[in-house]
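Exercise: predict the fold of this chain.
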Amino acid sequence: MAVKTEVIAVEVVYALSDNQMLKRLDVPEGTTVAQAIALSDITTQFSEIDLTKNKFGIFGKLAKSETILRHKDRIEIYRSLVIDPKDARRKRAAM
């Protein structure tokens, strides 16, 4: 008798200032963040994504690549900061 594997729905998102992608996936229960990102194929559309450097999270909270996903989780891949937000505010205030 075959064991039935549950399937969960997750989303993988990445955004630039002018382009964003949201990919919905149905993955087996027990899938990790890294596996879902690989299944989404998002790194082929956005070559600047380097999973060894970019951070990622689930609903705004940082997550590790080995984190097990739950139904309806949204994985967010974060870009590196171009400028420190404090420095940006100082520059605007100085104008």
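Check your answer against the key: Strands lie at 7-15, 20-28, 56-58, 61-62, 74-77.
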